[in-house]
Amino acid sequence: MTGRERFLLALRREQPDRVPIWELIINAPTITGIYGDVGYYAFAEKIGLDAITVFDTQRLEDLGNGLVRDEWGILWQTEPCGLRYPVDGPIKTKADLDSYRAPDPFADHRLDSLKDAVRHVKGDKAIVICIHEAFEFSHYLCGMDRLLTAYIEDPEFVHRLSRIVVDYKKTVLDLAVAEGADVILSGDDYAYRTQPLMSPAHFAQYSLPYITELVEAAHSKGVPFIKHTDGYISPILDMLVDAGIDAINPLEPVAGMDIGDVKVKYGDRIAVVGNVDCTEVLTRGTKEEIVEAVKETIAKASIGGGHILSSSNSIHPGISPDRYLTMVEAAREFGTYPLDEQMIQEFRTHNYISRYTSLGRDML
Fold it and tell me: What's the domain count of the chain?
């Protein structure tokens, strides 16, 4: 069975030969720390990932001192480890919005990363493209405070901005599927560890329509849709599932999201993707603790299929390469079907994250 077959079977809530392994993002220090400067695709092959992730290609203007500006006009700060975070956007007023134009989704370079992935792994590994939705790029463009204030004071501004973002993203979605993408993923984060960033009512008004639109666009092209969001998402999870998503990722343990509870409640409608903790366990846990976290995750989420194993966000530079390797090796050892019944009985009631935080299963 190929990685692509394994990954897509799990997204259809079916049982492959083993639990698929994937990460939304694996940062360069982990890749070079395990196999040297081999590049992402060779790394994915060597370590045995069943899917890889790509993004649409943005040309960057180098402004010096680690600052770059992308084609959206968003200013990004680059950290020494290579990570970037947004620091400013081009839309401050309604006048800015009136004159703003999104990047050209049809630009010749837009899908360069996807085309490269197709050349390297098409047919062998599933190709996941992260496109985002309305929320994340809206606050990149105008600032989180300005956007959330507009939720109260200027709904028209919010929807106009969202429309610009989603029209671009939907066009990229269509082009990406035609180019060979197997799976669409939206990367917008909607919550912090204790609660969503907005009320459920505002989520329903300002985010849900655009998620639903993109899910429908993906399904019209015959490809599944994974929704990624960190944080405590229980107050909005019903809405996300009702939007028609095929899977939820990553169900962050330190935010009180128990993947077993979500599998029980929604497993007949969505697959679950996650969720070995990357904030505590994979950054400072012992080898034994990492293996236990993998066993627990498999015991709770993998029964009957419909589970893809990953971290609780990404393999970021704070994770030592040996810890990630331990996680992958444990996933391969304990994730082969049929699963070990003794392991399931022992670990399905565990709660490994309680060692690190007072949050836990009771928050659901």
Answer: 1
